[in-house]
Amino acid sequence: MSRPQDSNLTLRALIILGVIAFAFYLGTELGLIGAGLTADKSYLSYLILGLYFGATLHWLWLAHALSGERQRLATLEAAANAQEELPTLSEGSLPALLANLRKKAGGDASALIGAVGDDLANRHALGHFLSDVLLKLGLVGTVVGFILMLIPVGEFGAFDPERVPQLLASMSAGMSVALYTTLAGLVTSTLLKAQYYLLDASLARFVNRLVVFADVHLGSDAS
Q1: How far apart are CA 29 and CA 114, in angstroms?
Q2: With 70 as the cut, is the pLDDT of residue 220 above it?
Q3: DSSP state of 14
Q4: pLDDT digits (tens, 9 = 90+) for 135-190
Q5: Which helix (H) or strand (E) holds 202?
Q6: Main-chain phi, psi angles of 212, to 5 degrees
Q7: DSSP 8-state secondary structure symbol assigned to residue 8
């Protein structure tokens, strides 16, 4: 039986992407994003946002691919529940799995299904890696900002009251780099982790349904 929350994974991903895009739009309209990019003399914020948008496109593609796998499984479940002949599939990971399950002479089919689940999960590894990279880039920006903040102090030399405002301005610029890059790294890393958590949870439900389907409807062939 098809589950709407599974088969509409692409729609859910687009809704989440729309909410994120609206949040970025509000940040732009309020001047927060523009101020952060302008104040960041290290340009790490540009790199962080670029990596995040690229990883989000990858996430959206994976959500669409997983949604297709779930829809194909739902088609098999509907045919099996109606006691009809299972349709022939030509796309995705299921055709090869079904062929191997039918050839399996005995034993537990969970190893084959686990291999398919691992293959699909490995596609998410890049997203989790980039999430950590975004956080690390934010921390690098923190260090760079503090270095930029302390350089004017080392160049200050003898105390001159007239140069104090210039010193404070230079230190403020360095602090801005540290704060804005840290904020950019934290926000984008958290968002990306949440996005890939949705994929991981959906994949876990997909594998569980696949195990049940194989045990119930392919038990005679797989055992």
Answers
A1: 47
A2: no
A3: H
A4: 999 999 999 888 887 776 666 655 556 665 666 666 777 788 888 999 999 999 99
A5: helix 164-217
A6: -65, -45
A7: T
Higher pLDDT: 10 or 76? It is 10
Residue with tokens 């540009």: 46
**Measuring CA to CA, which residue among 145, 128, 125 is closest to residue 45?**
145
Question: How is residue 39 written in tokens?
Answer: 């104040």
Q: Any idea of the CA torsion for 118, 122, 123, 125, to the nearest 10 degrees?
A: 150
Residue 4 has pLDDT above 50, yes or no: no
Please give the radius of gyration of the chain, using alpha carbons only, rounded to the nearest integer: 26
Q: Are 148 and 173 in contact (CB under 8 A)?
A: yes
State the amino acid at position 135 in one-letter form.
Answer: L
Would the pTM of this model clear 0.90, i.e. be above it?
no
Main-chain dihedrals φ then ψ at residue 187, nearest 5 degrees:
-65, -50
Distance CA 206, CA 208 (A): 5
